[in-house]
């Protein structure tokens, strides 16, 4: 039947069905595991190839290698989306691999290049190293965290029992509160993530750079992680500035840039990427704080103006970072005017 149709989905699945037809009936279908792991580590491997090629084969023309390599990497990223370009439609790990590659190569540059070449401020180096270790610890912790999965239905206020689909029909209520995938009746501000295939309480968003959802139990940890990333990247840029001021002290700014472009592009490229990441991270953190200051999440945003004062919103942010409930609730926000974006 699939071979008789000419739509994209039928054309894509026909050769797979023909291949499966040749297998034994007990054959267990597995997804593209190798492809998934390759997409995850491809950015780190590609950047390693760029760095090694420029250093060993074209040491005087490093800029050409880095520019060509970064164009290839950017074009590869533009060709990816939330899901893999495969019939399995698994979550695409390319963006998570890019984030990991940035952390990894920044740490390698700082430990094996900047510290040996510029160690005149031991207190600064120790502080940056400890913060970097804390960053990787938080990275591991948030990857292993439970976002707050809704594992059972909301309980009925009168009987105290977990509600079922029947309870939504008699008496008649909103049937869309029932999730057919998780088979639970969702509480208010609970949303199903199609990438994770799970319902989460107070869901904020699915992060492509971490391959996890951010919800009730790990949303505050995510904001702390972003803060730690911003501080670490700032210290890295300061360390690079100290290194440049010593290594190129006799050159002007333009000559320094030109020299680094052709002979020290590893440092220059990571400076550019970390500087761009700081701008992106500051904007992300500003948006997150503007949302949580009103006691909301990205998914359940309200377009109405807030009635909270500036002081109340600041206290709400502090309470959120401490893992507590909002200090003040916005009276202009209710379940009726909260919508999904």
From TrEMBL:
UniProt keyword Phosphoprotein, yes or no: no
Membrane topology of the entry: Multi-pass membrane protein
One GO BP annotation of this record: protein targeting to membrane
PROSITE patterns, per the entry: DHHC (PS50216)
Enzyme class: transferase
Enzyme Commission no: 2.3.1.225
Subcellular locations according to the entry: Membrane
Pfam family for this entry, one: DHHC
Membrane-spanning intervals of the chain: 33-58, 64-82, 94-115, 121-140, 221-246, 266-285
Keyword Transcription regulation: no
Alphabetical UniProt keywords: Acyltransferase, Membrane, Transferase, Transmembrane, Transmembrane helix
GO terms for MF: protein-cysteine S-palmitoyltransferase activity
Domain Palmitoyltransferase DHHC: residue ranges: 177-299
Catalytic activity: L-cysteinyl-[protein] + hexadecanoyl-CoA = S-hexadecanoyl-L-cysteinyl-[protein] + CoA
GO cellular component assignments: endoplasmic reticulum; Golgi apparatus; membrane
Domain notes from UniProt: The DHHC domain is required for palmitoyltransferase activity.
Family that this chain belongs to: Belongs to the DHHC palmitoyltransferase family. PFA5 subfamily.
Protein name: Palmitoyltransferase
Organism in which the protein naturally occurs: Magallana gigas (Pacific oyster)
């Amino acid at each position: 039947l699939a071979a008789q149709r000419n739509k994209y989905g039928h054309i894509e699945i026909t050769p797979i069905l023909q291949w499966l037809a040749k297998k034994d009936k007990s054959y267990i279908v597995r997804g593209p595991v190798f492809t998934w792991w390759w997409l995850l580590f491809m950015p780190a491997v590609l950047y390693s190839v760029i760095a090694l090629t420029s250093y060993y084969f074209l040491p005087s023309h490093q800029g050409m290698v880095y520019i060509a390599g970064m164009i290839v990497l950017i074009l590869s990223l533009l060709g990816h989306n939330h899901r893999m370009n495969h019939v399995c439609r698994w979550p695409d790990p390319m963006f998570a691999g890019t984030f990991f590659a940035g952390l990894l190569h920044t740490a390698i540059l700082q430990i094996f290049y900047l510290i040996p070449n510029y160690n005149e401020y031991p207190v600064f180096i120790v502080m940056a190293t400890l913060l970097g270790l804390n960053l990787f610890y938080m990275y591991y912790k948030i990857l292993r965290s439970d976002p707050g999965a809704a594992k059972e239905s909301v309980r009925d206020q009168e009987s105290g029992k977990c509600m079922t689909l029947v309870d939504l029909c008699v008496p008649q209520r909103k049937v869309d509160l029932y999730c057919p995938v998780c088979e639970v009746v969702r509480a208010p501000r609970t949303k199903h993530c199609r990438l994770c295939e799970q319902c989460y309480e107070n869901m904020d968003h699915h992060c492509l750079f971490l391959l996890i959802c951010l919800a009730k139990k790990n949303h505050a940890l995510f904001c702390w992680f972003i803060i730690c990333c911003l501080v670490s990247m700032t210290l890295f840029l300061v360390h690079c500035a100290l290194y440049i001021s010593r290594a190129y002290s006799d050159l002007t700014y333009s000559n320094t840039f030109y020299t680094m472009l052709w002979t020290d592009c590893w440092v220059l490229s990571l400076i550019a990427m970390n500087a761009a990441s700081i701008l992106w991270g500051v904007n992300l953190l500003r948006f997150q704080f503007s949302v949580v200051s009103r006691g909301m999440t990205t998914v359940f945003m309200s377009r109405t103006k807030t009635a909270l004062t500036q002081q109340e919103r600041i206290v709400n942010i502090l309470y959120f970072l401490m893992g507590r409930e909002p200090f003040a609730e916005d009276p202009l926000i209710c379940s009726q005017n909260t919508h999904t974006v």
